[in-house]
């Protein structure tokens, strides 16, 4: 049998938190008290993939974004060729011009091929319903007691 590439986390739960920041604060508190934090793991539980829509996608935004990203790549290559070949203005101008053309093409072609099926921009993230801190079983009781004494316990979620 082969070893999994990403082994599941092990340990005993010593705290459960509504946010990653709260779980981090608990681990930080343990670190401040010289607890061996290498024996801890923060685990996101009840994971969801959330796509947050950030705006409408138009031809103007596609062309503008493609031209801008292409121009930056062109600046990089223009400066590189300027350093290698002597002179900066002509290689820089040429690099920006070629970059803008390629940026426009690489942005406009996929957008045109989508035929309006995705006329919005978005950002995707993974969020968890809660964050558990796991500890090595040999030190779990100690970690749990420190977290409980520090007041860093899970807060009730009013939404459920």
TrEMBL record:
It comes from the Bacteria. It holds the Pfam family YflT. InterPro entries: GSP17M-like_dom (IPR025889). Keywords: Membrane, Transmembrane, Transmembrane helix. Residues 14-84 form the General stress protein 17M-like domain. The chain crosses the membrane at residues 62-83, 89-113. This is General stress protein 17M-like domain-containing protein.
